[in-house]
Amino acid sequence: MKYDLIIIRYGEIALKSKYTRNQFENKLINNIKKNLKSSNINYEVSKEWGRIYLKTDNNKKSIEILKNIFGIVSISPAIKIETNIEKITKKCLSITKNKLSKKNSFALRVNRVGKHNFTSIDIANIIGKEIVLKTKSNVKLKSPDYEIFIDIRNEHTYIFLEKIYGSGGMPIGTQGNILIIINEKKSILAAWYLIRRGCNPVFYLKNNLQKNNLNKFMKKWFIDAKIYEKNPEINEIIEIKKIIKNENCQSIVTGHNIDNNDEIITNIKQIKNNFGITVLTPIIMMEQKNINKNLKEIGL
Question: CA 74 to CA 67: how far, in whole Å?
């Protein structure tokens, strides 16, 4: 099937005030543009209330990129047509004629925004009856073989067959700068949780053995950040203090977790005393088996 565009949805951004929402939407759009451009993909981006639309010359590659851009909840390659019952019905029949038969089932998921002389239920009833008549398929609202989504938004309607889930969270750069101390693989997992919340990362590579893992992580999640490698000739505390000041970091992030280690709390307290800023430890209560599972899920 040839799609006209990709629908991009976000979640938490929609809960913000109008001013903040607009800022966060623009940040997300800028992140999308930057990452598509770096992958040599031609694109056009537009937005309306609650949606971002992407036209691109490479849907497949674009979808793989979008899935790992923080702030995106879901995406759908879609067909765009005029909001007209006859045209919507005709397009839905065209899409389903080679997919549905009496051996399988379907459900219509209709969403409507704007003023129209019909309801979402009207659309579902009219189109559903036509699909049953033409394909002999059965309507099954719970766990059908196929779902056809009809998103009616004012004068335009978008038809799609799937929702591909993204990483969620908030766009990178919508929160403050954080310094992430990388000494073990699990400290990269700790970084993931804070970056996913919109923090702008600066990395301090304390253990050079993690350099390949860090580069792999940044590439997968489209993270563009400074990496400072530990200088053995400079006192570590002095070096980190300088980075914090130069990069205006508001917090330090570490991969500490309580795993039968009584010194963890003392270590965290010492870091706070050394640098005078908040220490964030997002995986502190995570068991090792869950750390390993989550590392695998983020590509490590």
Answer: 8
CA distances from 159 to 11, 25, 121 (A): 20, 23, 16
For 94, list phi and psi in degrees, rounded to 5.
-65, -40
The domain limits of the chain are: 5-165, 177-297
CA distances from 84 to 105, 117, 125, 150, 280 (A): 25, 10, 15, 12, 53
Q: What is the mean pLDDT of each run of 10 residues along the chain (300 residues)?
A: 92 79 91 93 90 94 96 96 95 91 93 92 94 93 94 95 95 95 96 96 95 96 95 93 96 86 83 94 93 95
Q: Which helix (H) or strand (E) holds 265?
A: helix 264-275
Q: Give ∠ CA 115-110-64 in degrees, rounded to 5.
A: 115
Domain 177-297 architecture: 3-Layer(aba) Sandwich (3.40)
Pull the structure tokens for residue 207: 């253990």
Burial class (CB in 10 A: 0-12, 13-18, 19+), 21: middle
Which residue from 300, 84, 108, 288 is spatially nearest to 212, judged by alpha carbons? 300
Tell me if 287 sits within 8 A of 217, measured CB to CB.
no
Dig out the tokens for 50 from the structure: 């609650």
pLDDT at 22: 85
What is the model's pLDDT at position 262? 64
Class of domain 5-165: alpha beta
Helix/strand/coil percentages in the chain, nearest 5: 40, 25, 35
Contact (CB, 8 A) for 205 and 227: yes
